[in-house]
Write the structure tokens for this entry.
Amino acid sequence: MSTNLLSTSDPTGFGGVIKEFLWQWENQPIRVVYETLGQGSPLLLLPAFSSVSTRLEMAEMARLLAPHFQVVAVDWPGFGESSRPSLDYRPEIYQKFLTDFVQAVFSTPITVLAAGHAASYVLLLAQKQPDTFAKIVLVAPTWRGPLPTMGANPQVAGIVRGLVRSPIVGQILYKLNTTPSFLRFMYRRHVFTDMDRLTPSFIDKKWQTTQQPGARFASAAFVTGNIDAIHNQSDFLALVQSLSVPLMVVISEASPPKSRQEMNAVAAIPGVQSVVIPGSLGVHEEYPAAIFNAIEDFLFSPQS
């Protein structure tokens, strides 16, 4: 495993230094792209898993934090500009990746801000290696993929995943579920609350992300719950209760009802700091300034 400098002025980034982390999973080489901005103590930004997942959804958040931290934002394996091989994406891959990436890139305990589904992986690492993190911020945390949330059982989810992974049929199904009109529908339904932000240019950039070679494999794993690291609420809450690291949860008030209930359950745990702000599941991209204002005291206080 190693890291290499890619570019300092790559137009696909958010103004930072773009690097690659060369990683392997079961002898499969994977190129992971990440970006650093600012100076100071390290802060890791982990984007939410989704069909449009990319570190660029953390761009404004990174710019707000960079005057105070050395911010590192990463594209998960299988998403963004990272390699998208046709792996059987499952929790073990992302657990091992996050452990290896943090160990290779950072030399001191770090602050982490994780959105959506990234929450489970941060909590698992914090349980396994408590000294990894100095503080944890979970933004609109989730632990269950879309199909399981809708009530699909593992057998049905597995059939769907297999179809999307298959050649020809899978490519057709994936394209139908990533058309600009479908992406706009999903954003309106549970990702953004300000519809004026869903410009043709915005949707086009999201669509381009979904059309990269191999994009359907990790996306299908997320949608069908195959990268759910946790499978029930009690286990998720137990992870939070086991933490020895200061934790703050940002709840988006317009989240879908099931997701909002899960966030409220985390916030109710003694010792967890929480705040409710506008937005839905894409709040880290839609309202980064509101998040920064809400977590500022938590981040900068010596003892949380």
User: Anything to note?
Assistant: The mean pLDDT is 94.
